Amino acid sequence: xxxxxxxxxxxxxxxxxxxxxxxxxxxxxxxxxxxxxxxxxxxxxxxxxxxxxxxxxxxxxxxxxxxxxxxxxxxxxxxxxxxxxxxxxxxxxxxxxxxxxxxxxxxxxxxxxxxxxxxxxxxxxxxxxxxxxxxxxxxxxxxxxxxxxxxxxxxxxxxxxxxxxxxxxxxxxxxxxxxxxxxxxxxxxxxxxxxxxxxxxxxxxxxxxxxxxxxxxxxxxxxxxxxxxxxxxxxxxxxxxxxxxxxxxxxxxxxxxxxxxxxxxxxxxxxxxxxxxxxxxxxxxxxxxxxxxxxxxxxxxxxxxxxxxxxxxxxxxxxxxxxxxxxxxxxxxxxxxxxxxxxxxxxxxxxxxxxxxxxxxxxxxxxxxxxxxxxxxxxxxxxxxxxxxxx
Length: 391
Ligand SMILES: C[S@@+](CC[C@H](N)C(=O)[O-])C[C@H]1O[C@@H](n2cnc3c(N)ncnc32)[C@H](O)[C@@H]1O
Hints:
It is a single chain. This protein is an alpha+beta fold. About 20% of the residues lie in helices and about 25% in strands. The chain has 2 domains: about 1-250, no CATH class; about 250-390, no CATH class. Strand 6 (about 155), helix 7 and strand 7 (about 175-185) form a beta-alpha-beta unit. The longest helix is centred in the first third of the chain and has 14 residues, at about 20-35. The radius of gyration is 24 Å and the shape is elongated. Mean pLDDT is about 90; it is low at about 1-10. It binds S-adenosylmethionine. S-adenosylmethionine binds near residues 19, 49, 77, 82 and 160.
């Protein structure tokens, strides 16, 4: 098998990336700034976790008293059930515990509970964490973990990337408050976008520069993402926090320029100097290729990049749909289309029927375009369709 294939196979299975403490701290602080009592008296479940690996338990255990938590539960997934195998050795913490069982350690999940001051030092913290083996392997879909979900007020974790859809559905089915990590692409999923559109869920605070750094289970593991040897961290592009817990940033409206000012002064050469914004050929909306180029005075529908959702303020805009992945309302079907790639190679396709389309008066340069009945078209990236809310 070619080396590249091996890498792909590995990447598809690898869910073993661990969240950094300070990323968790930055995110949780945003909810706490908005409502200092957001977690007070609440039960938090951290599924798909493992305190020996994960910082979610460390963070909430350290802040148990300060946040006024009622109960912290975290569950881990059995090493033998993990799709991506790494050498397994039970930790000293586990081996030295009276309940240690060598027949269970690699096939059972574990539950860790923090609820009371066991050590008698007058504080509830990580020293008071109690654990035992679960009946099963700790799969979040199992009856026993689902029961814990039902007991909890909040579900907080970085779930397995490969099971994201199922994980979110599991949370929504339980009607729980949640704060989880996912990939920006998940926004386009049929199961996710309608929830965002209807303000049932939204994005948390962005990772700095859109880059998230996670610790891999094994050093030098760069099967997915970009591995940095100096830090032993793997960089992932386009990771987001997804949540239904309110925070202040989503209520800060974007400050925007008028259409005229954008066309005159925009920092983007694609906008500056144009006569007007481009209008889609197959949908009544203008193309706005950059979030900071959204005009303040356009009353109609605008197609904006998906990354707009990082800055989406529901008091400023309403979301009407998304092109391409889940369009629903394209108003035109294009007949026979010839796709011409950058090198001039031609092929018959049906791609224009899926997504927002621009009509060009001249042959587009340096990009793939489509010829339909002698006219030239390009298709734009997936766009979120939005409109200003008039005060
Ligand atoms: C992306 S890692 C994150 C781990 C930890 N929550 C953190 O953020 O540091 C996801 C974890 O979920 C575990 N996992 C995979 N499938 C699972 C399942 N069906 N049920 C529970 N956990 C699962 C993986 O083994 C992995 O350790």
